[in-house]
Hints:
The protein is mainly β. The protein has no helices and 43 strands. It has a 4-stranded antiparallel beta sheet with strand order 1-2-3-4, with no helix packed on it. The protein has a 4-stranded antiparallel beta sheet with strand order 5-6-7-8, with no helix packed on it. A 4-stranded antiparallel beta sheet has the order 9-10-11-12, with no helix packed on it.
Amino acid sequence: xxxxxxxxxxxxxxxxxxxxxxxxxxxxxxxxxxxxxxxxxxxxxxxxxxxxxxxxxxxxxxxxxxxxxxxxxxxxxxxxxxxxxxxxxxxxxxxxxxxxxxxxxxxxxxxxxxxxxxxxxxxxxxxxxxxxxxxxxxxxxxxxxxxxxxxxxxxxxxxxxxxxxxxxxxxxxxxxxxxxxxxxxxxxxxxxxxxxxxxxxxxxxxxxxxxxxxxxxxxxxxxxxxxxxxxxxxxxxxxxxxxxxxxxxxxxxxxxxxxxxxxxxxxxxxxxxxxxxxxxxxxxxxxxxxxxxxxxxxxxxxxxxxxxxxxxxxxxxxxxxxxxxxxxxxxxxxxxxxxxxxxxxxxxxxxxxxxxxxxxxxxxxxxxxxxxxxxxxxxxxxxxxxxxxxxxxxxxxxxxxxxxxxxxxxxxxxxxxxxxxxxxxxxxxxxxxxxxxxxxxxxxxxxxxxxxxxxxxxxxxxxxxxxxxxxxxxxxxxxxxx
Length: 482
């Protein structure tokens, strides 16, 4: 497809937009051109969309304008002149036709009131560079973001507003954020070698842990009971911080020969697993303050990610060597090593809620679902994305899997049917770094590597299956506030 070419079907008509600056309305029944539209004042049309009843055609353009054409009168219904500061990426009508949403390369989304011919709602991000991570609070009330611009933003999910933008909290990039299990605290970890614990309700710092590492802090995670906060660093060590006493509970040194890429608590909080560039995994016993077991020689490349099964019995590892291992925590041995499953780096792994499957995300653009009990591949989604996959996650019901890719898209996979359930339109225009699904399964949040002035988050509601056949597209129906 040539850039800026787009076709949409409106029932009796098909609309086409071309790089030559024209839009044509084709009559399906008579096989004729109903109307050719060319506006001397408009730029190249980047996206077109019919209203639900086929009365209007919305057009987004390179100059940031949005135009609504009346199909029957062949004239403009309304022109939203340069409502964006950069080219329009997409325009889409609400199901009732009352609103039109437009997204742009200026990293903004505008909701246009079709009847009132006015702007209804405008949301624009507050970060100025890469958002490395975005997470939900346990009650799904908030989203917290970590950015390379040294700041953290907390968004109110219900009213889609910024709850608070924490600036001046770190002097270098923020690498990780995590909520405590009760949602009371938010921990932030930075390249500046500090960890800040924020009290969410008061929007203030509970405590700043400094001088705890001699290298950038790569990851921070609360224990399941919220009593401890674990931090990992490029100094190859792990610290366990006591939230109540505001002191270091224990400092695990000499556990790896290179920097630590990922850490995770076991579901009961008894153990902390660490993955490292040195190709090894350690399981640390928090209560006894020692190394429970050191798994070495399990991979030939750095280990990027570790994940416990929900019963804590197994630990899965993802490696640069394209393989995945399942480690038996109690027996301290390798339960199974999956080889020849990917042609490139395995970036992330995730257990299904019932522990039956492990899903793998790889830079080869494919996903494998591995059967834990039978030690084989349940299904291989080949050529799923047009680029590497950075993140993968099961929905709480275990029926669906979400993937995020370099190709700027998020896809939803149906586990039982072994097929792609849906593809979410690329709200981001750079690689998607992370995804997280809320505990109730109602929302999915993604963070991106967008290189433009501002970034935004994609907030998507995922429903249970409501149709017998595939749903090809879905949009929000926005209710105007009284």
